[in-house]
Amino acid sequence: MGAGRLKSIGRSRRTGRAAAVVALAAVAAACANDPGATLFPMPEPEPSTISAAEVPATTPDGFPNVSAMPVVVGGEPLTGDQQQVAEKSLSGDLAAQGGARPAATTSTAAELQAAGATHEARARAAISGGS
Question: What are the residue ranges spanned by the domains of the chain?
């Protein structure tokens, strides 16, 4: 290959890289201005205007239609006196189980590093086939 041909190949590679960088920058700039922009515009269907009475109780494959099930909220809120009685009952249960809540366990950095070193040694032994 001649020197001129090599220079031409090098120039075309640089040009191709530069074009790719410019294209990538253009795409990033376009997305940065409007992150919610629609990249592929497609027609959206109109919202359904059917009433709740028109929703079938089952789906076409025979399963219950969860969209047609009413939301049932049962019970009544506790009054202040009922709330206090419930709290006393729960605190009595807690006392019967040994008192206060157990303290959260904490590990020191040295304990965590030792555990990590042990784990690393076991992993290296397993990878190398040793025990």
Answer: 1-28
